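User: Can you predict the 3D structure of Esterase mlcF? Sequence below.
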Amino acid sequence: MVPAVKKVPSRAILCIHGGGASPEIFRFQLAPLRAALKDDFEFVYAAGPHAAVPGPDVLPFFAGMKDFYSWFRKGATDTADEVAVFNEAIRSAVETWTGANPHAPIVGVLGFSQGGLASTVLLWEQQMGLVPWLPRLRFGVLVCCAYSDVATEYIRANSRLGGGEVVRIAVPSLHVHGSQDYNLGQARDTLATHYCAESASVIGFEGRHHIPRKVEDIQKMARQIRRFVEEDEALQA
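Assistant: Sure. Here are the predicted structure tokens for Esterase mlcF:
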């Protein structure tokens, strides 16, 4: 019997962990989704630039997986500087991956909690042409996303629209909301404030502030992510 040839994914997803977590923790948290998409995508993990205390629900389960990081610091007074530091951390991860894996370009971003907010900033920067080093992100996935008045004001101040409007992100996006998530209001605010309704999809799951774990929820996410790529490739053909 001839052994099956393992399929090598030809695309990658940039993964942005939550505040007070790490790439190692996020890799563990994403295990069910990684398994569902193992033939389609590689997963690339960026590390937050700031040392942080463990985030919600990180302890005690991940107590042995030190250190913990965040993307933005609470109380920081220079938002532009915070974004610049964030960009450098993302750029380092992107360029390291791209240099070593030209066969699997990054085509999307997936962020959890504060990582969802960071993903929102990144997608907005892409739309504004502010990150020319970033591969074209065809989609964004935000799970239990955070919201920030500071980030919203920064985006509003740096958008090229009159009247203080916020530039809404047009790239296809998937917003995954936990029905019992303490952050649910923030996730909805980020969706309503920063994303075009016509290109945004929402999946709800029965759960709190975590990556979905049930098979049916993971399958829904995986199908939508594949659909994003298929639809983009059809448009580019």
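The two ends are 38 Å apart (CA to CA). The mean pLDDT is 93.
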